[in-house]
Write a structure and sequence with these properties.
By secondary structure, the protein is α/β, with parallel strands linked by helices. It is built from eight helices and six strands. It has a six-stranded parallel sheet with strand order 3-2-1-4-5-6. The structure holds 1,6-di-O-phosphono-beta-D-glucopyranose and magnesium ion (MG).
Length: 214
């Protein structure tokens, strides 16, 4: 038994930009600018942890837990509004071909996403039927770099962690995969994702990775 576990945002679908725009809008309302440089730190990180990073970037101190909850909810409303109209054109390059290839090669397929909207987004993209198991932010408590989201996927698939390959675009996600005893393909910057077994610059290059020799 072997499996490939996909992160969602930045790997399967291009929703990272909507997370960024939603945080940017919230930051503007709080009176500061949130720029793309800080955005890298938000990738793969849970909603509340992301809020803390955004507030810190803006030098905003003394926000109560209740206010934080309100701010995170507001950001999520902006995000949901922004992704309301997305369609299959937002699926990242080569993903459908890669899903088809690994399915034919006998890999089970899971989602391992920090996003509470994970399942909904896969369904919107008409991709849900490719996935044997979907683990999203509603099923896990511990955010990446904790491996819980991937370990849960492996458990539900019934595949040992060492037979799982994670595909991730976030530093926290790569670290989660490796500390969970899995192999990892990083998608993005090889310096940022240095802990991965192999890094491809974009999803279009996933087809070139030899999964058997990772
Ligand atoms: P939500 P992933 C992550 O998705 C995003 O990368 C991260 O930016 C976001 O804060 C997190 O999901 C939580 O998302 O607010 O929708 O629950 O990369 O793990 O698929
Ligand atoms: Mg991601």
């Amino acid at each position: 038994m072997k499996a490939v576990i996909f992160d969602l945002d930045g790997v399967v679908v291009d929703t990272a930009k909507y997370h960024f725009l939603a945080w940017k809008k919230l930051a503007a309302e709080l009176g500061f600018e949130f720029d793309i440089v800080h955005n890298e730190k938000l990738k793969g990180v849970s909603r509340m942890d992301s809020l803390n990073i955004v507030l810190e970037a803006g030098g905003t101190k003394g926000v109560s837990e209740n206010e934080k909850l309100e701010l995170a909810t507001r950001k999520n409303e902006y995000y949901l509004e922004m992704i309301g109209g997305i369609d299959e054109s937002e699926i990242l390059p080569g993903i459908q071909e890669f899903l088809k290839k690994i399915k034919e090669e006998g890999y089970l397929i899971a989602l391992g996403s920090a996003s509470k909207s994970g399942r909904m987004i896969l369904e919107k993209m008409n991709l849900a039927e490719w996935f044997d198991v979907i683990v999203d932010g509603n099923l896990v408590e511990l955010p990446k770099p904790n491996p819980q989201v991937f370990v849960k996927g492996a458990e539900l698939l019934g595949v040992p962690c060492e037979n799982c390959i994670v595909v991730e675009d976030a530093k926290a996600g790569v670290e989660a995969a490796i500390s969970g005893g899995m192999k990892c393909i990083g998608v993005g910057d090889a310096e940022i994702l240095e802990a991965a077994n192999v890094v491809v610059p974009g999803t279009a290059r996933l087809m070139e990775v030899n999964l058997e020799t990772l």
